[in-house]
Amino acid sequence: MVTPTGSTLRLTADREVCAGAGQCVRAAPDLFDQDDDGLVVVLRADVPPEASERALTAADWCPSGAVAAHRPR
Amino acid sequence: MTRPAPEPFTDPVAATAPDPAAEPVRTHEDTPFPLVRSCPFTPPDDYAGMRERPGLTRARIPSGKRPWLVTRHEDVRAALSHPAASSDARHPAFPALGDGEQAVAAELRPFIRMDPPDHTRVRRMLVGEFTVRRVRAMRPAIEAVCAEQVEYLLGRQTPADLVADYANRVSTTVICRLLGVPLDDLEFFRRITSISGSRDSTAEEVNAALGELFGLIDRLIDDKSKDPQDDLISRLATGPLARGEITRHSLLSQIGITLNAGHETSRNMIPLAALALLEHPDQMALLREDPDLWPGAVDELLRYLSVADVITLRVATEDIPLSSGTIPAGDGYIALLGAADHDPEVFPEPERLDVRRAQRNHVAFGYGTHQCVGQNLGRLEIEIALRVLFDRVPTLRSELALADLPARSSSAIFGLDEVPVSW
Ligand code: HEM
Ligand code: SF4
Question: Does A22 fall in a domain?
């Protein structure tokens, strides 16, 4: 499938597997936060185009595989 | 650059009868390990060859076990995040570099050597203490600690020791304050970790050292259960322990590993990082011009030095396929963080310290579910300790040439024993 450039990414974060070290928050503080227990919270599931690189970096840095960035179909 | 495809592994030691009079085989199937660093800044030279050639390297460690060595960045990440990666030291193939370490870890079960779901339960009791936000709030307190300890350093006669007279004092004070351990004896932890973290220690020696530490923590748990303060031990004692979610025996191990891991890593990183910047005045000048480069510089120093290189010991509970070959089920392996952090496919010119290298996908803190729980604290502590040191002591210089500095070669975390400095 060819995705038009500028189309938005959609973020998911699996709190069951989150290891809580906050790499996602470091990569994209506008998209992720950690709750008081240290687990991931998605602040913006629909990533604005200007933040898509940060979203992909967060998915790359996340050590536990909790963060995923998908192109919605 | 593409790498040659992996070849099927044939074991030359098994294929030919060994001649006992011959030199030990030094093929890549029987590499004596651990290797030593020829330069204190750089992971061992032989890692480069291991990364390049097809097939995994098999090591021979002092216990006689033969774990596989994983060296490419993509493989190290894959091998540490694979569901079949076990950290359980009770497994006979677990490749501990010291026998003392294996026996003690199997008995005490610190969560660094546990698998899910046990690991997950313990780790979740701690992650809330180390979030990006919680650690950011610690900045003023850590600045105050570093400011105080740099005055202590300046009060010493030169040459002073950057390890004992600064880095050890900073790292011990920071971790003890966080946990709520009173600070009567700043050398106490240095003595304990130098025994518990050494490959040369026997199980008895490690047990005796940890026994002293656990006695102290045990008394603190009692005191803080009755009279809780604003610290981590109080929160664990009045929370998970009081609710019966963790046994006292396990809690002692978990507090013990957090103290040890949080103390030794920063203690070793700070002097090495300071020396690395002294050796690279061009990089130092960049930081003086633009202090906003500091956080990136700390990640680059973590990558470049990769002091926890050989901490990531695992056993494959199923076959783990990697780009360089498959780790067979049941075998031990070591995912070499320093080798991954110097992989030229990911970090161009890896041996160059470049504080503007905007690449933070290094694995100095590991990868997978065990990735360092204290990494946000570690980063901040190193940054502040270095900034305060260089601001307050701008004429700092090392008294010895790099090659003459005594290395802590028997420790699981790479570091220098002593770094004499003047100003
Ligand atoms: C400053 C530099 C530091 C480095 C380079 C470092 C490195 C590492 C590495 C590589 C691991 C993963 C071990 C494995 O996968 O088997 C780890 C785990 C750990 N680190 Fe750190 N660390 C540092 C600082 C700290 C600090 C300040 C703390 C304080 C709380 C800490 C506490 C821990 C703990 C408790 C674990 C075990 C986590 C788990 O198994 O889930 N570390 N560290
Ligand atoms: S980076 Fe991954 S593991 Fe870490 S807090 Fe974010 S989601 Fe959790």
Answer: yes
